[in-house]
Specification:
Elements: E1 4-7, E2 10-13, E3 16-17, H1 18-25, E4 29-33, H2 34-47, E5 60-64, H3 71-79, E6 83-86, H4 89-97, E7 105-107, H5 114-123, E8 127-130, H6 133-146, E9 150-157, E10 179-180, H7 184-193, E11 197-203, H8 214-232, E12 239-241, H9 260-271, E13 277-280, H10 284-287, E14 291-302, E15 307-311, H11 320-324, E16 330-332, E17 339-345, E18 354-362, E19 369-372, E20 394-398, E21 401-406, H12 411-416
Helix pairs in contact: 2-9, 5-6, 8-9
Bound molecules: ligand LLP.
Ligand LLP is lined by residues 64, 66-67, 85, 108, 168, 205, 208-209, 243-245, 281-285, 320, 324, 377-378.
Length: 426
């Protein structure tokens, strides 16, 4: 469900005409819908209603900032009560700049530096999700040197196949993430014995774009057993982080993934009686359908074997199709009703710069606008300046108002970031 709808034959973002917006800001650009963000966050929060901790705390919904770190997007969610799951000092600074309270920030990631640990401790974040015994020792040293105590959850590798794309699967034995399940009790006891570290719980995140609840169900069962085992061993467990990963619909022609309501019912069933505060780290589910990438057709080119629609966006702007073979629905902003079969490509000098192959799509011609739907998650944030292309603007819409929340970064800005070595100066 999103708020990008047809009005008299043209695509609107809420009350804003995307054709007029394209004229105002130029193409390509990302456009985000506040109403969609608000709706998705609200739906997710509602699915976890009634799952308070014994102390009466609602689950902490720590939005995975990596999915869309635009500070206005994070600020929109922060105002709704979202916390933040961050994986770098940069993401932590963004979350703080967006108004997320330090006490609602969770720091995840497999390779936190000592500098990042110190920064997070100085800020007073809610929890560090630790991914190895080595990291526990490092964190203990950093916290002790600062005269503070790090509140820690151990990220477990539950050795479960998430049944998603291999590049975004994180919970299998061969993946780099988390502490192998069998070693977690010892690692937890180690954490309890170290200076400057206080273990409060465990967590898992098995992958992204999950379209099957069974691996999550198995993961939650594993976490539940682990909580019981740790407690039997005399250790205190107050929190469990269930991670993120719930998939979203990308293809109108395929069955939708499990709904947030089905996920919520699973969480309620699986976590009954745990007696902990629950944390979740949803990213894509909150922002994916809240964003589109708007692009203009440069030319329609008849190749020897197929028809190419060449657009002014490229793989550097939206990497997912070329990196994961991801499918994004492509539609004309003002469809005529006619259809065509075309391969949609960008201007970058790589054959991998392909958004869709032999796609049945709205017929378009040079100058027409197209949108890549469901581009709010892992879109702008994975962009690069490859081929010395400018980073595209991001626009946030709210009802009938809109604002450029990241201006286009032109070539002058790119050049200003670089230096000619002294010996090369004229
Ligand atoms: N928590 C942790 C520890 C994560 O690593 C991730 C995502 C999330 C939460 C949020 O997962 P989500 O709810 O968004 O599925 N670039 C890829 C996705 C990478 C996901 C990385 N980790 C893509 O475009 O599909």
């Amino acid at each position: 469900m999103d708020h990008f709808t047809d009005r008299a034959g043209r695509l609107f973002a809420e009350e804003v005409d995307l054709t007029a917006l394209a004229d105002a800001v130029g193409t390509p650009f990302y456009c985000y819908s506040t109403a969609t963000l608000v709706r998705h966050f609200g739906v997710f929060r509602d699915t976890l209603a009634g799952l308070e901790s014994p102390a009466g705390e609602a689950p902490l919904i720590a939005y995975a900032v990596k999915a869309n770190p635009n500070v206005s997007v994070v600020a929109t969610l922060a105002r709704l009560g979202a916390g933040a799951d961050v994986v770098s000092e940069g993401e932590m600074r963004r979350a703080l700049a967006a108004g997320v309270p330090p006490g609602a920030i969770v720091f995840s990631g497999v390779g936190k530096t000592r500098g990042e640990m110190a920064a997070a401790l100085a800020v007073g974040i809610y929890q560090m999700n630790v991914e190895s015994e080595g990291e526990l020792h490092a964190l203990s040293e950093v916290a002790t040197a600062l005269g503070t105590t790090a509140t820690v959850a151990l990220r477990v590798n539950p050795e479960i196949d998430a049944r998603t794309h291999a590049k975004i699967s994180t919970g299998a034995a061969e993946n780099k993430f988390g502490i192998p399940l069998a070693r977690v009790p010892a690692a937890y006891a180690l954490a309890a014995s170290l200076h400057g570290v206080r273990p409060v719980g465990v967590g898992a995140h098995i992958g992204s774009q999950l379209t099957d609840l069974a691996p999550l169900e198995a993961t939650f069962a594993t976490l539940g057993q682990l909580v019981r085992d740790l407690r039997t061993g005399g250790l205190s467990v107050e929190r469990v982080d269930l991670g993120g990963g719930l998939g979203i619909p990308y293809r109108p022609d395929q069955p939708p993934p499990p709904t947030p309501a089905e996920y919520g019912a699973l969480v309620a069933r699986a976590t009954a009686g745990w007696g902990v505060r629950l944390l979740c780290e949803p990213g894509r589910l909150i922002v994916g359908n809240a964003g589109v990438l708007v692009s203009r057709v440069v030319t329609v080119k008849a190749g020897a074997a197929r028809t190419f629609v060449v657009v002014d966006a490229a793989m550097n702007d939206l990497l997912r199709p070329s990196l994961y073979g991801a499918w994004h629905h492509i539609r004309a902003v003002a469809p005529t009703g006619a259809r065509m079969t075309a391969t949609v490509v960008g201007p970058v000098c790589e054959t991998g710069d392909t958004f869709a192959e032999d796609r049945d799509m709205d017929a378009v011609a040079a100058g027409d606008l197209v949108t890549f739907m469901t581009a709010g998650a892992y879109g702008a944030t994975m962009a690069s300046t490859y081929n010395s292309r400018a980073l595209v603007p991001e626009v946030l819409v709210d009802g009938d108002r809109w604002a450029v929340v990241r201006p286009r970064e032109d070539i002058a800005a790119q050049l200003a970031r670089e230096r000619i070595a002294p010996w090369l100066s004229p």
